TrEMBL record:
It comes from Nocardia aurantia. One of its GO terms (molecular function) is acyltransferase activity, transferring groups other than amino-acyl groups. InterPro entries: Thiolase, Thiolase-like, Thiolase_C_2, Thiolase_N. This is Acetyl-CoA acetyltransferase. PANTHER family: ACETYL-COA C-ACETYLTRANSFERASE (PTHR42870), NON-SPECIFIC LIPID-TRANSFER PROTEIN-LIKE 2 (PTHR42870:SF1). Residues 5-174 form the Thiolase N-terminal domain. It holds the Pfam family Thiolase_C_1. Residues 257-374 form the Thiolase C-terminal domain. CDD domains: SCP-x_thiolase.
Amino acid sequence: MTNEVAIIGVGMHPFGRFAGRTAMRMGTDAIRAALADAGLRWRDIQFAVGGSWEVANPDAIVGLMGLTGIPFTNVFNACATAASATEACADAIRLGKHDIGIAIGMDKHPRGAFTVDPTLVGMPTWYGENGQYLTTQFFGMKANRYLHEHNISQRTLARVAAKNYRNGALNPNAFRRKPIPEQDILDSAVLNYPLTHYMFCAPDEGAAAVIMCRADIAHRYTDRPVYVRAVAVRTRTYGAYEVNTTYAPVEEDVSPSVYASRAAFEAAGVSPADIGVVQLQDTDAGAEVIHMAEAGFCAHGDQERLIADGVTEITGALPVNTDGGLIANGEPIGASGLRQLHELVLQLRGTAGERQVAGKPTAGFALLYGAPGTAGATVVTT
């Protein structure tokens, strides 16, 4: 018999720039916030899973929190790291190995674009030198191709970014907390067409943590549990147009985001129509547009109309990135997906304050996409 899994505590260290503060210290703040949210002490935690790009051994955080001897598993899957941490934590509880655990993410990235050394993941140096790796060039090429194929305008990208800046202004944990008008976004420097400067997120600093337990004991800690219905992680297949595509495919295939989303919905027993609040990877505004269709929330090409009609606004029928997403929060890679869960839990509890979706949604969805082509999808419900 397997156990149902509930989220009983969430915590965040704000995202942004924090001189003199290490990723580990930010991680401890997120953990303590999650513990306080659940009414637990560190010694109540039976195991932990943690992920980071910059910190080689996130497990070392136990030295700051307390040496209680718990098992700690380090995970990494680029921007999809938090999906792997969430899945590992939930599965250990679901399979009866532990009753209460915590997933942690933390990072402290240097200023600048995501220009990571490609040799770190087995790619040749020339791959990064000609702009094909984790750079603005790749994101721009992908967005340009998608907009061309589906007759979507550059202004739609500006609308996405403007929405996320507005939402970030309502989020005390966000990095960028100032609304930026659509025209200013369009008029900002073009980094890689069709993406301008203000259409990109920024690598930054922060941490987040989520505490889970067996659902049948969740009432001991909270009267508002949120249930982890499914987590699915998928890698790309041959022919997918993704970061490490080094040669022309014989036949094109879809993004791993499609497969991860489908698997998560199937495992959860819900459909995109049941979802009341959505968190999508928006490394750039084009990514949010693309992921709307890849996750199954609309047909390819319908995004232009839906976004223009305000469907993805907090007040719309399908609120997307209500906390500002990556565009407003930035992306400390290891923490990014747990920030998504933090927001979904607040929304499903009805405690998101000024950015609360009306009617308190009963189901939420989060999608992460990480290079070189790994996607993680999570479904949570009340």
